[in-house]
Amino acid sequence: MYKQKLSLSLNGDFGIPFTEQIRLFKATGFEAFTGHWISGQDENIRECAKVGKDEGMIFNALHAPWDYTDDMWNENERELAQKGVDNLKHFVELCSDVEVPLMISHVYVGYDEPCVPTQFGIENYGRVVEHAKKHGVKIAFENTEGEQGLDALMKAYNDDKDVGFCWDSGHEMCYNFSKDLLALYGHKLMATHINDNLGIKDYNGKIFWHDDLHLLPFDGIADWDYNAKRLAKTGFNDILTFELNNKSKPNRHENDKYFKLPIEEYVAECYARACRFATAVNNA
User: What distance lies between CA 30 and its chain's CA centroid?
Assistant: First the structure.
């Protein structure tokens, strides 16, 4: 897009191999793509990196696994916490190997109990951060459930230019009760996961991953003029990444209309919505 590079996340539900997705993204108009963790398939990610280079596409970030991220805060789960640290360290090394400059990481997984920040947790994430620095990789922590852990890390690394924030616009609505996280962490913004949803379905406010729909922008309840103004205010001028799903969550049907489309038509619509939002940001 003119004066704004756009990225789309690879997705296992798109029905074609990741390498073909990269080629399709380029043909549609995207300048970049973001990869996701695939358990035991490091070579798949390396192949994506190779195809990306061959196609002149930017591999702008990799999303790390979130297994054991809740245990990393818990001193009573030291063995599981170590598995979490090792997972993230391995992914740092994979980012370095495929020359991806940024790793996206969740900081907690769980819906029944809030994240309780601890010094033990900050130290565990600190070990990952130091490993990333040694390998020339930056880390952006994403808003999900457990925003207390995110807040603790943003404060701990407020002045660290190698650690930042990944804003997921949909998570903000369905996990963070529409709290303005860009106002809190916009000065640390390193990446975006832009998507829409219908907010929190439960009347009493119980959050659950089935609400995380990843609809195309303008298909949910988000106020996109408001989002554009907030994003513009941060001064962020890097690649805008859109993280979108064409498959509905269990017992939900909001994404069914996407799944019926040929993948080429769906990705074309993703690009159209991305351009629409990017234009709003540029004009804000």
Answer: 17
| 270 within 8 A of 245, measured Cβ to Cβ | no
Strands (E), the chain: 6-9, 32-36, 58-63, 102-105, 138-142, 163-168, 189-193, 240-242
CA distance 142 to 126: 16
Indicate the domain borders of the chain.
6-283
Q: What is the second-level CATH architecture of the domain 6-283?
A: Alpha-Beta Barrel (3.20)
Enter the pTM of the model.
0.97
The alpha carbon of residue 211 and the mean position of all alpha carbons in its chain are separated, in whole angstroms, by 16
- Return d(Cα 138, Cα 129) in angstroms, integer: 8
Residue 74: closest CA among 108, 40, 32: 108
Q: Residue 40 pLDDT > 60, yes or no?
A: no
How far CA 14 is from CA of 10, 112, 174, 246, in Å, comes to 8, 31, 23, 7
pLDDT tens string 229-276: 999 999 999 999 999 999 999 999 999 999 999 999 999 999 999 999
Q: Which residues pair with 9 in a beta bridge?
A: 34
* 39 neighbors 65 (Cβ within 8 angstroms): yes
Query: Which pair of structure tokens corresponds to residue 122?
Result: 């900050």
Tokens of 241: 């990444």
R_g (Cα) of the chain, nearest Å:
18
Sheet with 6-9, edge to edge strand ranges: 189-193, 163-168, 138-142, 102-105, 58-63, 32-36, 6-9, 240-242
C-alpha dihedral sign at 121, 124, 125, 126: positive
Q: Is the pLDDT of residue 204 over 70?
A: yes
Contact 147/132 with Cβ under 8 angstroms? no
